[in-house]
UniProtKB/TrEMBL annotation:
<dbReference type="InterPro" id="IPR021135">
    <property type="entry name" value="PEP_COase"/>
</dbReference>
<dbReference type="GO" id="GO:0006099">
    <property type="term" value="P:tricarboxylic acid cycle"/>
</dbReference>
<feature type="region of interest" description="Disordered">
    <location>
        <begin position="1"/>
        <end position="45"/>
    </location>
</feature>
<comment type="similarity">
    <text>Belongs to the PEPCase type 1 family.</text>
</comment>
<comment type="function">
    <text>Forms oxaloacetate, a four-carbon dicarboxylic acid source for the tricarboxylic acid cycle.</text>
</comment>
<feature type="compositionally biased region" description="Low complexity">
    <location>
        <begin position="1"/>
        <end position="32"/>
    </location>
</feature>
<dbReference type="GO" id="GO:0008964">
    <property type="term" value="F:phosphoenolpyruvate carboxylase activity"/>
</dbReference>
<comment type="subunit">
    <text>Homotetramer.</text>
</comment>
<keyword id="KW-0120">Carbon dioxide fixation</keyword>
<dbReference type="GO" id="GO:0015977">
    <property type="term" value="P:carbon fixation"/>
</dbReference>
<keyword id="KW-0456">Lyase</keyword>
<dbReference type="GO" id="GO:0000287">
    <property type="term" value="F:magnesium ion binding"/>
</dbReference>
<protein>
    <recommendedName>
        <fullName>Phosphoenolpyruvate carboxylase</fullName>
        <ecNumber>4.1.1.31</ecNumber>
    </recommendedName>
</protein>
<dbReference type="InterPro" id="IPR018129">
    <property type="entry name" value="PEP_COase_Lys_AS"/>
</dbReference>
<feature type="active site">
    <location>
        <position position="619"/>
    </location>
</feature>
<dbReference type="InterPro" id="IPR022805">
    <property type="entry name" value="PEP_COase_bac/pln-type"/>
</dbReference>
<feature type="active site">
    <location>
        <position position="181"/>
    </location>
</feature>
Length: 971
């Protein structure tokens, strides 16, 4: 950070001259008023905005902290860059000296300066992505990979008709599911301020007068000053209610408006691509893109989630959607000033107007307004019946609440039909169509809330119910066969195990209360409010049957005679570890063949969902093996479900990091094995990735479109079926099996079989400090131990990202490939094997996506920075051994990746991301170095059994925030 100008050197077009610097001192905003000259460099606006935001941040910091802080910051940055680029031991010593000299106040100021630059750089980059997309659209380049237009064009070329596309979407479900996990390190107040900065940055792309530009710059500076004066950290732990509110903010920002608009655009794209359908347009498609949520319903490992949080989640979701509906209807009422003195209206519309509580003579000839006043009154009554309070605008008169969202849709359709029949079609699109579509998508519940609990909890609850009912004294001790027989027998009996006259453990009461609450929520908010029950750690068939029995106990599974009749919540197994994934098909075979279950699945449209866990499988077996076992499990499940005549819907438990299934969603969906998507896909969106994808409406819309486009392509593009292709794929899969086994051994040997590895991990990463952060309602570990087996996969990956190793995203690949090539025995055979790997990269989407994600992770990995974290390990021998093995594997992995792809440069296929990473590292590296120094101080205090220093703890947490923002996908 240069004095008076905290901007990376790589982002500056020209060095400041003395005259320019003097001018800046006279008028801080003067340098930012003049628009940059046009440039042929497509990234010139990005550089300009990064430079602008950095300069404004510098002015704010100078004003708040003084010139001395600038000198310190710039010296630290330059020294850190020299240490990283040159591996200069002298620079490392200088850096140590500089960091140790910092006062506590200086440390936190420096950390905040570097952290906020990462935040501002993210804003500039997001706006640049929007800018480039608009440029493509203006140039007529709509059909780019990832767009629905591109997907439809490919399908058209492949011979897929418009009728097939529409028929497909009528049965499809694409559902991003927002989850709350302890990786979201941004406060909502910070996100709100940054959204305003993003709006102002976007405004600068418009033609602005000098006065407008000056005003824009002043507002930017004010918003950055607000950021600086806003507390970056939470001082109290997040509650589930806080997490619910954070998630709801993204609906107000993005989903409520962008989802309905996206539906309309996709309809238009289908009509445009398949013009034969345009004149006889089909009925609007049902809501195939729907939102889901785990926040308030995910109990696995979170003792803070219960029946009350689930009820609170639905009440807040309902309040959010009704606030939106009421505001839109009110605005429509102001806009729909159509008079029957000017144009006719349909009899249905007139009847709707006459039924309105509005009888004002002033609106006697304005039936649309009167009808909307009636709709508003009915919506307000419905909202109140569902517990919504503080409705801002009082309705004119009383009206009956809607029995269902479909009733509201029907009344809005009356307005649409009347307008279309009476020269008012142009009035439908601006607002009315979007409102009607929103009601179809969001209903009265906003998003489907999933329930999740661990299988061992279900076992404990049923063990007590069986024992208290004197049916089985030791249910947990039964063999699997006897458990199944007992459960099936109990399911065939109409009587209940539970008795209101007996006392039960708190856990049993809580679990039964939660299920009863789910039944009540479905009755109040509609069936879509809750429809899925996910079982974590599914290891046996009895794990699924246990949830059936618990639903029977709470009125969610209905029995007629001795037959299971209807199941309200779909029972969804979650297969997480490597052994679980390998058993998935066999467990599901048992499930699908049970006569009692077949009828229940038929009632769900012959559809069964299965969830696959990316996080625990990676922690269990490493990056390569996790991906491969997921791929194999999917193929086995597809084959099994096809045999059974049941449609499979896969729910992908992806996280933010590549090690947890992260990476570009579009490529990930296209890389799925053939037949695994088939129009049905759900996937989790977690942690800070939610903010990255959906805090900007335009970027949020683009991410939603990517999901639909990828689902269309993955489901409808004809797959190659000739024998030659099948033989080639079989060979590729054989090679992957060998590589996976080698990678698995390498990963397990280090993580689970090397003495002292756990000690190394807890010393060389900020895992302990992360666990203290107030960044989630869920504990970092399932049990109070320091066993990696008990550690949740999320903080495991997050910790490796903080120390810049990103270990879970690549470890084991280098050993696997190099060992396989060396095993060839001679140069000719080795070259042949390498050619096979190159063919796999070129021709197999699964392998190509795997390498692409690993390439991105390696580009963010930095051994020089990681070496300083290794220095936190007191045992020199342990430090040398473990870090030496990690660096050796990193070298092998980088070398093997380069050999396969043919390029030594990381991210050669994504130059924009490569430049982004390069530009921000100058600001990211000092945060890591400061984090190490602060952790040393903190741990030394703890070792001396002194009271921890609050400012040091705060500094550590600030660096965690800054590093997470700089890397963007670390959770």
């Amino acid at each position: 950070m240069a004095t008076k100008n905290p901007t990376p050197r790589s982002a500056r077009s020209t060095p400041s001259t003395p005259r320019a610097t003097t001018a800046a001192k006279r008028s801080p905003a003067s340098k930012t008023v003049t628009k940059p000259a046009r440039s042929t460099d497509k990234d010139a606006p990005l550089k300009e905005h990064i430079r602008l935001l950095g300069r404004l941040l510098g002015e704010v910091v100078r004003e708040q902290e003084g010139d001395e802080v600038f000198e310190v910051v710039e010296t630290i940055r330059q020294t850190a860059v020299r240490f990283r680029r040159e591996s200069d031991a002298k620079a490392g010593a200088e850096l140590d000296k500089l960091l140790k000299k910092l006062t506590r106040d200086q440390t936190n100021s420096v950390v905040r300066a570097f952290s906020y630059f990462s935040h501002l750089a993210n804003i500039a980059e997001d706006q640049h992505h929007n800018r480039r997309r608009r440029a493509h659209l203006l140039a007529g380049s709509e059909a780019k990979p990832g767009s629905v237009a591109y997907a439809l064009s490919r399908l058209d070329d492949a011979g897929v008709s418009g009728a097939q596309v529409r028929s497909f979407l009528k049965e499809a479900l694409v559902s991003p599911v927002l989850t709350a996990h302890p990786t979201e390190v941004q406060r909502k107040s910070i996100l709100d301020a940054e959204r305003e900065i993003a709006r102002l940055v976007a405004e600068r792309d418009l033609p602005l007068t000098p006065r407008e530009l000056r005003h824009n710059t002043e507002l930017l500076r004010a918003r950055i000053a607000t950021l600086w004066q806003t507390r970056m950290l939470r001082y109290t732990k997040l509650t589930v209610a806080d997490e619910i509110e954070n998630a709801l903010s993204y609906y107000r920002i993005t989903f409520l408006r962008e989802l309905p608009a996206l539906y309309d655009d996709i309809e238009a794209e289908i009509d445009s691509q398949f013009p034969s359908r345009a004149k006889t347009r089909a009925v609007e498609l049902p809501p195939y893109l729907q939102m889901g949520s785990w926040i308030g319903g995910d109990r696995d490992g979170n003792p803070n989630v219960n029946a009350a949080t689930m009820q609170h989640a639905l009440k807040r979701q309902s309040t959010t959607i009704f606030d939106y509906y009421l505001d839109e209807v009110h605005t429509l009422g102001a806009e729909m000033s159509i008079s029957t003195l000017m144009v006719a209206a349909s009899p249905e519309l007139l009847a709707l107007a006459d039924a309105s509580p509005d009888h004002s003579e002033h609106r006697a000839d304005e039936p649309y307004r009167r009808a909307l006043i009636g709709i508003y009154a009915r919506l307000a009554a419905t909202a109140r019946s569902l517990g919504v309070v503080n409705i801002l605008r009082q309705e004119i008169g009383a009206a009956a609440p809607y029995a269902s969202p479909a009733e509201c849709v029907a009344e809005l359709e009356v307005l649409v039909a009347s307008l279309q029949a009476n020269h008012g079609a142009a009035l439908v699109k601006p607002r009315l169509a979007g409102l009607k579509r929103a009601v179809e998508i969001f209903g009265f519940h906003l998003a489907t809330l999933d329930m999740r609990q661990s299988s061992d909890v279900h076992e404990r609850v049923l063990a007590e119910l069986f024992a208290k009912a004197q049916v089985e004294a030791d249910y947990a001790g039964l063999t699997e066969e006897r458990k199944i027989a007992l459960l099936l027998g109990e399911l065939s009996r109409p009587r209940l195990l539970y008795s209101p006259y007996l006392q039960y453990a708190d856990e049993t009461n809580s679990e039964l209360t939660i299920l009863r609450a789910a039944r009540e929520i479905r009755r109040r908010y509609g069936e879509r409010a809750i429809r899925n029950y996910i079982i974590s750690h599914t290891e046996t068939l009895s794990d699924l049957l246990e949830v059936l029995l618990l639903q029977k106990e709470t009125g969610l599974l209905h029995i007629e005679g001795n037959q299971l009749h209807e199941l309200e919540l779909m029972v969804i197994p979650l297969f997480e570890t490597i052994p679980d994934l390998r058993c998935a098909a066999e467990i599901m075979r048992g499930w699908l063949t049970l006569p009692q279950v077949k009828g229940l699945i038929a009632k769900h449209g012959k559809l069964q969902e299965v969830m696959l866990g990316y996080s625990d499988s990676n922690k269990d077996g490493g990056f390569l093996t996790s991906n491969w076992e997921l791929y194999k499990a999917e193929n086995q499940l597809v084959e099994l479900f096809n045999e059974a005549g049941v449609k499979l819907r896969l729910f992908h438990g992806r996280g933010g990091t590549v090690g947890r299934g992260g990476g570009p969603s579009y490529q990930a969906i296209l890389a799925q094995p053939p037949g695994t998507v088939n129009g049905q896909i759900r996937l989790t969106e977690q942690g800070e990735i939610i903010a990255s994808k959906f805090s900007n409406p335009e970027i949020g819309r683009r991410n939603l479109e990517l999901l639909v486009a990828a689902t269309l392509e993955a489901s409808l593009m004809p797959a190659a079926t000739d024998g030659k292709e099948a033989k080639k794929l079989a060979e590729f899969e054989r090679v992957m099996e060998e590589l996976s086994e080698r990678a698995y051994r390498a990963y397990r040997n280090l993580v689970y079989e090397t003495p002292g590895f756990t000690d190394y991990f807890f010393a060389a990463t900020p895992i302990a400090e992360i666990a203290q952060l107030n960044i989630g309602s869920r504990p970092a570990s399932r049990k109070a131990t320091q066993r990696i087996e008990d550690l949740r996969a999320i903080p495991w990956g997050f910790s490796w990202g903080q120390c810049r190793l990103l270990f879970p995203g690549w470890y084991g690949f280098g050993s696997a490939v190099s060992g396989w090539l060396e095993e060839a025995g001679n140069a000719k055979e080795s070259a042949k094997r390498l050619a096979t790997l190159r063919a796999m990269c070129k021709e197999w989407p699964f392998f190509a996506a795997l390498l692409s994600n690993m390439d991105m992770v390696l580009s963010k990995t930095d051994l020089a920075v990681a070496s300083r974290y290794a220095g936190l390990v007191a045992d020199r021998k342990l430090r040398t051994t473990i870090f030496g093995r990690i660096t050796g594997e990193h070298e092998r992995t980088s070398a093997m990746l380069s050999a396969i792809t043919g390029t030594k440069e990381r991210l050669s296929g994504n130059p924009l991301l490569a430049r982004s990473i390069k530009n921000r590292f100058a600001y990211l590296d000092p945060l890591n170095h400061l984090q190490v120094e602060l952790i040393k101080r903190h741990r030394a205090t703890a070792a001396a059994k002194r009271t921890p220093e609050e400012r040091v703890q705060r500094g550590i947490h600030l660096t965690i925030n800054g590093v997470a923002a700089g890397l963007r996908n670390t959770g």
